[in-house]
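Researcher: First entry.
Model:
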Amino acid sequence: MKKITVVGAGHVGATTAQRLAEKELAREIVLVDILEGIPQGKGLDQWESAPIEGFDSRVIGSNDYGAAAGSDLFVVTAGIARKPGMSRDDLVKTNAGIVRAVSEQIRDASPDAIVVMVSNPLDVMCWVAKEVTGFPRERVLGMAGVLDTARYRSFLAEALDVSVEDIQAMVLGGHGDTMVPLISYTTVSGIPVTQLIDRAALEAIVDRTRNGGAEIVGYLKTGSAYYAPSSAAVQMVESIVKNKRRVLPCAAWLEGEYGIDGVYLGVPCKLGERGLHGILEVELSAGERAALEQSAAAVRSTMEAVEL
């Protein structure tokens, strides 16, 4: 790709831009933020790391979307961060206004771009971006499941004392308390995880996964996670840029898949050069299906709080 723009130069956005540059996923990485001097300073700092880290992706900062014109892909991280005691849904009205304004700029500056949404509450912000840009569902996706799955895998690896690379897992559903880790599809080098850990311990890990973001917010006090979220967003971008067709759990607009319609929800997505190349429908247990439907209902209730 020629150009990728990251919207929001806070911790998530700046770390995402650095990772994109280090992986050389585009010739030019643009960091956009409304705060004067912040994206310019961080972009210049990152570009000055290029001779040491050995990348040639040019990183630039801007306060407007002129520099972002013609971008192939946008990663949207703009919005207020969570504070202790806040749910992701508490952010909805403030961040909906921010994402609406960003989406208008994306539509006007780069009408053919793919959008990867990171702003919370994730599933609803994806919907705002899709509605405002008018882009097809293939070009507006959300980063949630990759992050939730990474947390789940890291906790399992710790509990089992094995490499994180050998944990295969997938977390579906909305990004929040109603996420749905698929225990029936969780394996360690192909071995069902239920053979290696008892159910109570597994349920505790699932619960910790659901509260993974809040756990970090509790430690940081004045901010939220950004190292793992930026890694998750970049994994999605890499699959798109390199047309890898990776199957990753992402927030996608459902049109009848899993019996659910008209809502963004985390499902197994095949990602390639067009963005979403397809949604894989896997067999779910009755409990998993019920949990997924409950998750969709929770996202819809948050959507109702947004006026478009």
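Researcher: Second entry.
Model:
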Amino acid sequence: MKINIKATGIELTPAISSYVEKKISAIEKFIDKATNATALVEVGKSTHHHKSGDVFRAEVHIVGNGLDVYAASETGDLYAAIDMVKDEAVHNMLQLKGKRETLARKGASVMKNMIKGFSENTAKGFSWGMERLKFKNFKKRQ
């Protein structure tokens, strides 16, 4: 995974750069090897007004083949903001993975029920498990 780091309102020191690379590279284990992912990381001060003290912001946008994850955080400490954005990005990746698995399992169960219904009801006609799909206004042949 490629990591591009951009600093806004602060100087990008080697210490900040190595810390960001260390934390963001930990996300790599949640990404498939086949997706050539790129992590666009932006760290810096969010604004110079409207808030008391320094407010640091960290953003990460991971883009790849079929992958688009964004996370952002703001705190009073730059390193804490980087830690929080890493945790949020991992949470978003796991949530996306769960959604994909759930959709795949739902589709597989619907197909299984259709096939199962087709094999049980072949002598009765062509109802092949449509009642299991719960279509609205579907009337079974008699």
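Model: Note on the second entry: Residues 106-133 form one domain.
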